């Protein structure tokens, strides 16, 4: 996959996963779908109301079922914003900030930059371990997204924070550089991502079966075209 | 060869199965589990040189059920009962962070009384899990009394949760928006009475087990995981706290009512198997302290759950929420596409993360220390496999 294509994908609405109709037969008005719909729900409604779009998600109750909506609307927290700005100033266009919400930041990078960015995050920010590696399949965009959830044990002010480092690869030839030399803690997570989604981590010592049965002879099960039998 | 046959017989008695011996008959490959009485549904292959382990390769997956795939077929509410299967002894905590993540996605607010009941159930379940773990650790060290006592006392807490939810082990008690039902009459007094009894028992546990010279000799200095290694390997929970890192999600990222409570993060600096066995014990004691506060501060009346629409859903988005479970941080990463079913659910569990410490600690250790090191990692195979 060319990096240009990746940038184009990221630059606007393509980063969403919303290609889905809301099939609702109740009296609810349809939910708003915004370009930044990966934001926190509260953030999304904030950005909408500020941009003079009059509609906010309204739920007219059908029967007794009402949904208590989160009404707290706040600015992106300053501390998180500071971190995101610092990352942006260091890497410029290489890093894209997807969202900032309380205790959570998500940034996206291209695959060939991920080792550089991860090393920077570890050495300069103190994000010293990876909590999980989550791969998600997006067949409509022909991409697989891999997210590293990074946390910090050494810095007290980052203790509750999780930084999501996201990258995307082509679905047909899914390859990513491994982060095992930066974060030893991703070893089993990457191995799991390999077998569940078929993402080959270049440089990882063992792109092998891990949790699945020894005689597994099917496509990686977390790809969307894999269906549970009988369902 | 007679020597080898003898060794094979001996190890079969111990429940280990010899896979093959190397050419020079010096290194022997042993498969520990999955039928080993202590390993749980988990296998790790070790190479031993005489008495010492020189190589260790974990092989999980014997109880992999594809929980993450299954979630994509069910809506947010239907997912609750099967998501607690990976660790039924801590079923309230494993659905806790799921509920938090779904609430963030759908914008549901939990009533205050519901938040307290959740936290109460969570702390009771932490005691249940830790007692179960302690019982097995006791029998691993050949300490039969430490198997009997926690198993018996665990019933008290199971009865409490049964009074709350109606089920002994798999409660399905936490739901997005609160808890399933209100607490029964007289629960508070009953709970306080049992906490009072249990705190006395904890002193006896300490005397018979943790201050037992044999137990200390067996565990102290065995399997040192230094602070730097613990951070590098990204371990969590009691394993991390035993290595001198005071990190607890309840303090680091307080959820629901935990920021109103007064408690301390329990940690030790000795970083050996004894510390890893003692930190859960300290956690149990702290949980009693937390439970008293929760019962004291809980509002007398009010809603326990928010009213949900029939198929709760929110705008497309993602959420990553964590709670502190019996085995450390337990996180759910949920992506929603706006439909009632999640698009992707990733469960980040403590056991899977702590598994990385197993080869690190076992290589260089004696084979006889294997059970001491392994079970002190607070590893739950079913949870790791998901």
What fraction strand of chain B? 5-15%
Structural class based on helices, strands and sheet pairing of chain B: alpha+beta
What gyration radius of chain B follows from the Cα positions, in whole Å? 22 Å
- The overall pLDDT average of chain B reads 87
Strand element count of chain A? 7
Order of strands, main sheet of chain A, comes to: 1-2-5-4-3
Please state roughly what percent of the residues of chain A sit in beta strands, choosing from under 5%, 5-15%, 15-25%, 25-35%, 35-45% or over 45%.
15-25%
Order of helices and strands of chain B, N to C? HEEEEHHHHHEEHHHHHHEEEHHHH
Explain this structure to me?
The complex is a heterodimer of chains A (231) and B (386). Chain A has 231 residues and is an alpha/beta fold. Chain A has helices at 3-11, 41-50, 78-91, 114-125, 187-197, and strands spanning 95-101, 104-109, 129-138, 143-151, 162-170, 175-177, 200-202. In chain A, the strands form 2 sheets. A 5-stranded mixed β-sheet of chain A has the order 1-2-5-4-3. In chain A, strands 6-7 form a two-stranded parallel ribbon. The model of chain A is unreliable at 1-73 (pLDDT under 50). With 386 residues, chain B is an alpha+beta fold. Chain B has a single domain (67-354), classed as Cytochrome-c3 Hydrogenase, chain B (Orthogonal Bundle), CATH 1.10.645. Helices cover 48% and strands 14% of the residues of chain B. Chain B has helices at residues 2-13, 67-71, 79-83, 91-106, 112-140, 144-165, 187-210, 213-219, 227-233, 238-242, 249-252, 273-297, 350-354, 357-362, 370-376, 381-385, and strands spanning 17-21, 27-32, 43-49, 52-59, 174-175, 178-179, 317-325, 328-336, 342-348. The longest helix of chain B is centred in the first third of the chain and has 29 residues, at 112-140. The two termini of chain B are 42 Å apart. The model of chain B has no long low-confidence stretch (mean pLDDT 87). Chains A and B meet through helix 2, strand 3 and helix 5 of A and helix 2, helix 4, helix 9, helix 11 and strand 7 of B.
